[in-house]
Design goal:
nine-stranded mixed β-sheet, 11 strands, alpha/beta, two-stranded antiparallel ribbon, single chain, 18% strand
Length: 344
């Protein structure tokens, strides 16, 4: 590491800058740069001044920013630092697991899973776990990545609210991330076609009543817009989070999570033959485990129970999970590890 008087940035600052550059962009990256004093002229700012500036950018009070936004910024930056270190060492995380559960990590392509070697998602590292689902061995790919970095997966499931109200594009949720990534933009970055917003609105006009909630577990399909360039062919929007009256919070009925998984496969079976080659891979986040209020382990348990039913009937589907949070990834891997494949 350079000495104190060296002109070049320290290794720590270089790593921190690289991690911030990997954030979603837009407001999150900008506020992170202020938070860590990475912008020119901000290094010697007092911490409270950086906090006030971040609060202004998010349009909230300094205390709200300190308690809610600042910890999220630090956590997301830390996740990117860990990802950079794993890439440098070429050592994706390996969960502890009981005997009989096989995992493979890295950019190699396991049998029966799409080859994404050389893509950003493969660089991030996906862990492939062999577990028992539906009474048979199944290889499940677990992606520690932002959902918009996924490649070559036919269907990505997006958790949303029971009104199918699209999130604002600068939000950090999975549904907001997919909306941003699917949008068609001009060279300056302006949105020319809000693919997800327009198609969800059209679906509600044709199948529901705008302004009224749909039953929990309902699935609405849209095309993938610009994500099609990454090999994503469909986005299935799962209505699992019910807004809590008089607040900005949500509740999620665990049964709605199971119903949503079943409805995802029912719709995928109907749409399967419309595509060439036919649909065969589905990626799930932990539905309802964000602002929906469910514990990650609870969401995973209900998802795995629904997968048991679907894969018992048809084991040809390829299953993927995705999460940005390292702790959520460990919950997924631990849950799969508790479903070992019997010897022989």
């Amino acid at each position: 590491m350079p000495g104190a008087g060296a002109r070049s940035p320290s290794a720590v600052e270089t790593l921190l800058r690289a991690a911030v550059d990997r954030l979603d962009g837009g407001r999150l990256a900008e506020v992170a740069a202020f938070t860590f004093g990475l912008l020119p002229g901000t290094r010697d700012w007092p911490g409270q001044d950086r906090r006030r500036r971040g609060a202004q950018l998010y349009g909230v009070g300094a205390e709200r920013f300190r308690k809610h936004h600042e910890p999220l910024i630090i956590r997301h930056t830390a996740d990117q630092i860990l990802a950079l270190c794993r890439e440098k060492r070429a050592e994706p995380p390996e969960p502890s697991e009981p005997s009989g559960v096989g995992t493979r990590s890295g950019t190699g392509t396991p049998a029966g899973l799409p080859d994404t070697a050389g893509t950003p998602d493969a660089v991030m590292g996906a862990t492939v776990v062999t577990a028992t689902l539906g009474g048979r061995p199944a290889e499940v790919a677990v992606h520690h990545a932002s959902v918009d970095l996924l490649c070559a997966i036919d269907v990505v499931v997006s958790p949303t609210n029971t009104y199918f109200e699209v999130p604002l594009t600068f939000k950090s949720s999975i549904s907001a991330c997919l909306r941003r990534a699917a949008a068609v933009r001009n060279p300056a970055g302006g949105i020319l076609d809000d693919v997800v917003g327009a198609e969800l609105g059209a679906w509600m006009l044709a199948n529901g009543q705008p302004g009224l909630a749909v039953p929990g577990g309902t699935i609405a399909p849209t095309s993938s817009g610009e994500l099609g360039r990454r090999g994503i062919r469909r986005i299935y929007h799962a209505a699992v989070a019910t807004p809590r009256a008089g607040s900005n919070d949500y509740d999620t009925d665990p049964g709605a999570v199971a119903r949503a998984v079943g409805a995802v496969f029912e719709l995928a079976r109907r749409e399967r033959a419309r595509f060439d080659p036919p649909l065969r891979s589905i990626c799930l986040p932990l539905l309802g485990a964000g602002r929906g209020g469910l514990l990650p382990a609870s969401s995973l348990a209900w998802i795995l129970g629904a997968l048991d039913l679907e894969l018992a009937a048809d084991g040809s589907w390829q299953i993927h999970f995705v999460a940005k949070d390292a702790e959520v990834i460990q919950v997924i891997l631990a849950g799969l590890a508790r479903r070992p494949v019997p010897p022989g």
